[in-house]
């Protein structure tokens, strides 16, 4: 039974990857707006219903690694050592993602995204979702009863740092410039939390 479930999961992952690769190939060859969903399905040799079982929208086809981005950030928080500070861990993950997205092979994809209002709007909604997930992970890590404004703010700053650095002339230098500000904001919040916990 477990082997059967594993086989289905692998097959599902292969199908998803095949669809995403076909979509990206067509989008880059002909332009995002010039390609329809049916054309992507035909290129991937799947039914349109199969395509939509893997991707909720045409925009989602472009951001196939959307879930990976979110999971990397939340797992970085959850898996860090007890003595490992939060912000350097997040910086490391954002830097790795920025390096990946600014590599030569990724340039055509991001040029397409930047030139499409629909894709930019989708990316913005995606960032908000990632920030919410990261805020929840930080709250769980701290053992807080609910999401605080501080956790939400730090999460949003972190996710936005990726976009700001990706679009900068020198992406890695931008990460180096942004994260000390996030670190300072977190230090103030930590100091306030410590004061609140301290006995009168």
From TrEMBL:
Give a single Pfam family match: TetR_N
This protein's name: Regulatory protein, tetR family
Residues in domain HTH tetR-type? Answer: 13-73
InterPro entries for this protein = Homeodomain-like_sf (IPR009057), HTH-type_TetR-like_transc_reg (IPR050109), HTH_TetR (IPR001647)
> What are this entry's molecular-function GO terms?
DNA-binding transcription factor activity; transcription cis-regulatory region binding
Going by the entry's taxonomy, the superkingdom of the source organism is recorded as Bacteria
Keywords for the protein's UniProt record, in alphabetical order: DNA-binding, Transcription, Transcription regulation
What organism is recorded for this protein? Microlunatus soli
Q: Which residues bind DNA?
A: 36-55
């Amino acid at each position: 039974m477990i082997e059967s479930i594993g086989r289905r999961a692998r097959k599902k992952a292969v199908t998803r990857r095949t669809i995403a690769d076909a979509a990206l190939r067509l989008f880059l060859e002909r332009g995002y707006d010039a390609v329809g969903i049916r054309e992507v399905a035909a290129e991937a040799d799947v039914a349109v219903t199969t395509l939509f079982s893997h991707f909720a929208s045409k925009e989602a086809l472009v951001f196939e690694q959307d879930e990976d981005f979110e999971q990397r950030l939340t797992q970085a928080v959850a898996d860090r050592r007890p003595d490992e500070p939060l912000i350097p861990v997040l910086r490391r993950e954002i830097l790795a993602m920025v390096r990946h997205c600014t590599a030569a092979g990724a340039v055509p994809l991001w040029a397409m995204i930047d030139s499409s209002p629909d894709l930019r709007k989708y990316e913005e909604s995606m960032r908000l979702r990632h920030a919410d997930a990261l805020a929840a992970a930080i709250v769980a890590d701290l053992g807080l009863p609910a999401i605080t404004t501080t956790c939400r703010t730090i999460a949003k700053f972190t996710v936005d740092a990726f976009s700001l650095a990706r679009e900068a002339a020198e992406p890695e230098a931008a990460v180096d410039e942004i994260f000390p500000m996030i670190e300072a904001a977190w230090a103030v919040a930590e100091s306030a939390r410590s004061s609140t916990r301290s006995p009168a």
